[in-house]
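Sample pair:
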Amino acid sequence: MRFLETVCVKRGHPLRLAWHQRRFDQTRQAHFDNPSPVSLRDLLQPPADAPLLRARILYDADTATVTYHPYTPRPLRRLRLVHADPDYRYKYADRSALDALFAERGEADEVLIVRDGLLTDTTVANIAFYRDGRWFTPQTPLLPGTVRARLLASGFLTPVDITPKALPRFRQFALMNAMIGFLVVKHGKIG
């Protein structure tokens, strides 16, 4: 089985690497027998001249390869709710289940996955909702993202169960992943 880790690199510097190392180590411990320690800092040797790169670390029990790609964010303003039950507890290299869900977006930019009646994530980002001066994130995401983990640890996010019916009670929503950080979606729509 192969896994993936995506790290944002700005001007040759990997961002928030400790959070990626934590998830990388947890994934390796859960799936591989007695994995030897691997330092992401040692693996990453990004070019210093690029303003923004996506470092893609593809790994299995024995190997890890890193490729660097220029990053241009795509607009994510309109989300379509889709009901599904994909297993993406770990950042698997095989994203075919998520790609199939993304194909259901219709005119929307992205899908927001509803599993067992509760909101989870989009195919590329965790999500948060704002109400009464606080940001809330789904209690059970598809993937525990690194930005989400960091914002939970800081107390900025509060995990709760969120149903589609609860959406009108929130004033804003935000997307978060390693490449975009925490991005409040202006004039966004879910439906």
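The domain at 3-70 is CATH 3.30.470.10 (D-amino Acid Aminotransferase; Chain A, domain 1).
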